[in-house]
Design goal:
Blueprint lengths: L37 H16 L2 H23 L5 E2 L2 E2 H32 L3 H4 L5 H27 L12 H25 L3 H17 L12 H8 L2 H14 L8 H28 L6
Antiparallel strand pairs: 1-2
Length: 295
């Protein structure tokens, strides 16, 4: 038996077998991408942005014009006689709230469309297959929705500056940035959760019509809650949209109906940040579980 050929077990160290093959492959189960997949995250973000930019007439300019009509109607109906609210004319009072409402609504619309369209069109795999972690996928989609909200807000602000009687002077830049960001993130998270849950566009429309729109319209955009009865004031203070609208308005006017002091506004800002953190954790858990996304 000594003259039998000797066989050597094949090597599994994944080393190249010839000088012409310089590729080296990692062991099975060893991740290729370490840390944050920046390229993948940027690609997903740009996909979301380009999706609404291609139809910007519908996604940016049309919502801006629709929201601007609120300013026209309410100014004509309620702003006559030099009416003042919080020490400014009615048009200046209502303008920041309308800007924030437009930003929130469009952030929701953008985030609530992504997964839902993928499930209906059968392209959901385009979101689930790329080498992105749950947090990266969630961050990319929320960033895209926030970008749309900000662009709508800028379009609205530019248009309102041309409206007679409107003055948009920033009194507290931190409040404009914080409440603007937190408001759009809040609606992006709600929209993303709605997109995961919904199975058809009717479901998404139900969330818009019965949750988002009522909370937005009853958030103090067109009035101060001091004019309401004590019971409805308490109800308004349980509405998170109220703190977004009033805090954003505080950034421009230096006054709000959250409370009589700046400390009350800071408490509202902190509470809004905590709410977003809790909601983000919930959305992350649901997204990671694959509920209604993976068969």
């Amino acid at each position: 038996m000594a003259n039998q050929p000797h066989f050597t077990a094949p090597s599994h160290n994944n080393q190249p077998h010839s000088g012409s093959d310089k590729r080296q492959f990692p062991q099975q189960g060893v991740p290729i991408i370490d840390g944050v997949n920046r390229l993948g995250l940027w690609t997903l973000y740009m996909k979301e942005v380009r999706r609404f930019i291609k139809v910007q007439t519908q996604t940016i300019w049309a919502p801006a014009v629709t929201t601007l009509l609120f300013l026209v109607i309410f100014t004509v109906a309620m702003g006559r006689g030099n009416r003042e609210v919080l020490g400014v004319n009615f048009a200046t009072f209502v303008a920041p709230g309308l800007i924030m409402m437009g930003m929130m609504n469009n952030a929701f619309q953008n985030a609530s469309f992504s997964f839902l369209a993928g499930k209906i069109q059968g392209t959901i795999v385009d979101y689930l297959m790329p080498p992105l972690s749950t947090g990266e996928m969630m961050a990319g989609m929320i960033a895209g929705a926030v970008t749309r909200g900000v662009l709508v807000g800028l379009a609205l602000a530019g248009a309102m500056l041309l409206w007679p009687g409107v003055t948009l002077t920033v009194a507290h830049p931190w409040a404009v940035l914080w409440f603007g960001l937190m408001g759009t993130v809040l609606l992006s998270l709600i929209g993303l959760l709605s997109s995961i849950w919904a199975e058809k566009f009717d479901h998404n429309a139900a969330v818009t019509n019965f949750v988002v729109q009522p909370l937005a319209l009853l958030s103090g955009t067109f009035y101060v809650i001091d004019n309401l009865s004590p019971m409805f004031q308490s109800v308004s203070r349980m509405n998170p949209f109220f703190y977004v609208i009033s805090g954003f308005r505080f950034g421009f006017l230096g006054q709000s109906d959250i409370g009589g002091t700046n400390e009350a506004v800071l408490h509202g800002a902190l509470a809004l940040g905590v709410l977003n953190a809790v909601l983000a954790l919930l959305v992350y858990r649901v997204l990671k579980s694959g509920w209604k996304l993976k068969g």
